[in-house]
Amino acid sequence: MNDLQFLTWVRGTGLDIAVGIFLLGVLWRLIEIYTLGRKKDLAAPRHAAGASGLHTVFRRSLPPPGMLKRSPVSYIGGYIFHIGLAVIVFLGAPHILLITNLTGLSWPGLPTQFIDLVTVVTMAAMVVMLVDRINKPVKRFLSTFEDWFTWAVTFLPVLTGWLAVQHLLLPYTTMLALHILSAEILLVVLPFTKLFHAFTLFGSRWYNGSANARKGVPV
Amino acid sequence: MSASLDKVTQTLKEVIDAPIASYFDSCVHCGLCAEACLFYTETGDPKYTPIHKVEPLRRVYEQEYTLLGRLMKMVGLSKPITDEELGEWQELVYDSCTLCGRCSMVCPVGNDIVYMVRKFREGMAVSGHVPDGIRGATKRTVEIGGPMGLKWPAVANVLRKAEEATGVTIPVDKEGADYLVLLSSMEIVNYPEYIEALAKIFHKAGISFTLASDAFEATNAGIQIGASDLAKVIVTRIVDAAERLKVKYVLSPECGHAYMAIRWEGPNLIGRPFGFKVVHVLELLDQLRQEGVLKMKGMFKDPLILHDPCQIVRRGGVLQAPEALIRQVAENYIPIADQQKWNWCCGGGGGASAIHTEEAEALRAKAFGVKKRQIEEAGVGTMVTFCANCRITIEEALDHYEMNTKLLGLTELLAEHLED
């Protein structure tokens, strides 16, 4: 298989397989989790302003009082790379084109130079987060193979995308094919690893918020 | 797998619901929950990271409920939980978790970690890896009536003394009273002033109340240990008495876990809503304050801070009453940085104060470090709280650190300054 055949495969069959596993995987996992249900709370509820599942879904996006100071790298690094990834995936012109081809939806993107800058900053934040995971006793203690693996699986598409655009290391065609392949691996892995928090965190925040809202506590 | 381990796995399978599944799948191992846990912040030991305390439960979830986990189990690639492992976890689930719920407030993906620990304890109770102290308290509550083994004649004696001290009659088993008053053994034994205070306040407000000779104990060690069947027996006693005496309200004592047990867990344990209302004593006092019944004479002048018991405030939802009441009686009340729902635990909740091993006591003293700093930073000589269990724990710690901080109960402080 030469470079062009490789690129053709990742753009065609490879993409179909990855998107297929991703969609079915997400659906399966959501069913697996949320059909477990929960018992009805029989205690008479209390009501309080600002306490509900929905409030918590939004509130937990901000650091609670005192926490930013306790773990600045987690919050600042976390914000930068999450927002960075979202900007690159949803506002980078080639990515919008891909989404348009898959779904027909389209929206304006940001200039390439800006996306380049965001990419570099995102990678830097991810490296800082990795170093923090190695250095911080709690994070190192909690870390399993999955934590290092999912970091790599998330980092590689960003790195290869950037290298391809910069025409570095390998010929553009090869790098682009590697970039697409790495993104496909990310899609395949996402439903079955901690990366699935991208979906479940809304449910988790909601459950926590609504259970405590019944007691009248905004959490 | 042994028969008993099989039962543990079965129990853990049963407690796993959609929220727990969602929480496990959301965790990204960021470790922020550790920063909210006093057992981590005061020791720096990563094993006290809250989400780590439920690791065996996570593995059961993965192996029993997820596609990948079940596949791994089928081909023998997963690590099943072992009895030995649960033994190791006992310290993490009981000694070093007070069910304070602070971790549940900070988790960025929204995990209610304390809910998971509470549920995990159900399996731990089945495994038998529970602290002797809580096991004993549960047994005494079921068999004798209270965690300290108090019987009614002893309680009646304390009530008689309170009647003599206050000149107020304390009715027992009186049908049709408005309030059924519950107590905690710790109050009866260590803080009988609470009973006197309550009698004075009820008398002043003209509210009818009664005690029940067969249901005076409000605390529920069955919940703390994680044995729902025993917890149900204990709660049922109160429900039966309340229904027999046809009261409108059941009054929870200051004690935080007692309030949690009767107000929030009670109806779920017996499987139906209550026909009466459960009110925490501070809720009642705050209502009386708003109605203008609770008039004070002479304010308490020493500068003081408030210690908010976790199960009443953060986990119980009595958020506004404590501060409103303390302002009513204290001239120099100093609000602290982490207060109300952000308060730090005394270190003795969730049954921890009943664990008397050397390690548990040393850990508890260490965990008190955060409270000690709060007292020192505020520069006060007095702390007020409203939970008998917090009081015992804090008094032990003050003693340990040779601090001469004065510790007061809020209800008594109010009663002392009640206008005649």
Task: Outline the secondary-structure elements.
The complex is a heterodimer of chains A (219) and B (420).
Chain A: H1 3-34, H2 53-59, H3 67-70, H4 72-91, H5 93-103, H6 112-135, H7 137-142, H8 145-166, H9 172-189, H10 197-214
Helix pairs in contact in A: 1-9, 2-10, 4-6, 6-8, 8-9
Chain B: H1 3-15, H2 18-26, H3 32-35, H4 38-41, H5 55-65, H6 67-74, H7 83-95, H8 103-106, H9 113-127, H10 132-143, H11 152-166, E1 179-181, H12 185-190, H13 193-205, E2 209-210, H14 221-225, H15 228-244, E3 249-252, H16 256-270, E4 277-280, H17 281-290, E5 304-307, H18 321-329, H19 358-367, H20 369-378, E6 382-385, H21 388-400, E7 406-409, H22 410-416
Helix pairs in contact in B: 1-9, 5-6, 7-9, 11-13, 13-22, 15-16, 17-18
Quick summary:
The complex is a heterodimer of chains A (219) and B (420). Chain A has 219 residues and is mostly helical.
Explain what this protein looks like in three dimensions.
The complex is a heterodimer of chains A (219) and B (420). Helices cover 74% and strands 0% of the residues of chain A. Chain A has 219 residues and is mostly helical. Chain B is mostly helical. Helices cover 53% and strands 6% of the residues of chain B. Chain B has 22 helices and 7 strands. In chain B, strands 2-1-3-4 form a 4-stranded parallel beta sheet. In chain B, helix 1 runs antiparallel to helix 9 (113-127) and helix 5 packs across helix 6 (67-74). The longest helix of chain B has 17 residues, at 228-244. At the A-B interface, helix 1, helix 7 and helix 10 of A face helix 2, helix 3, helix 8 and helix 16 of B.
